[in-house]
């Protein structure tokens, strides 16, 4: 099944935005997987994606970015089926470097509930106490899905980079690039697009509200 051209345009836009924010260039790979297009930082293994070294070397934090895109049922648009944004840290096993481990992950899975959620990779004695009081088996905090949005309004890579900057989790951004202004512009475009999609989904309700505001709205002629 052909991949919608807007999917490729979206992937290139994400790549361009990340390269505007970071000092070290990042190249994205687009991998067709069945009816979906997987998007993420290119690695030596063409079937997998790498994490991005935020500071340009393996001694600093890493950024994980991955999307799965597919055609909208109407065939006019594309939709994000899943996305993952994460902050990872390097570590070693027995003196040998190993894959970075996550600290926080913001995920979206269209088929899951809650669809948009966050995982915190940290230990918590109070959380263990709460499970004990509730009489349930203890679960580590990274196993919990903290809801943060919906299919329409989910976390974005722009949100995540602004979060890292705002909370001072990373401060080595590309100087003079104006990436924050780009992030806010892209967020405004995203919210507008999602609002339009919401109107299509709730057309009758939106029309009724517009009439209440004084607009003249007539339904389209429907075939017999």
Descriptive notes:
It is a single chain. The chain is of the alpha+beta class. About 30% of the residues lie in helices and about 30% in strands. The chain has helices at about 5-20, 125-135, 155-165, 180-200, 205-210, and strands spanning about 30-35, 35-40, 50-55, 60-70, 80-95, 95-110, 115-120, 145-150. It is globular, with a radius of gyration of 21 Å. The mean pLDDT is about 90.
In a few lines, what is going on in this structure?
Helix content is 31%, strand content 28%. The chain contains five helices and eight strands. Helix 1 runs antiparallel to helix 4 and helix 3 (157-166) crosses helix 4.
List keywords for this structure.
31% helix, 224 residues, 5 helices
Topology overview:
Blueprint: H1 5-21, E1 28-33, E2 36-41, E3 52-53, E4 62-71, E5 78-93, E6 96-109, E7 116-120, H2 125-134, E8 146-149, H3 157-166, H4 179-201, H5 203-212
Antiparallel strand pairs: 1-2, 2-4, 3-4, 4-5, 5-6, 6-7, 7-8
Helix pairs in contact: 1-4, 3-4
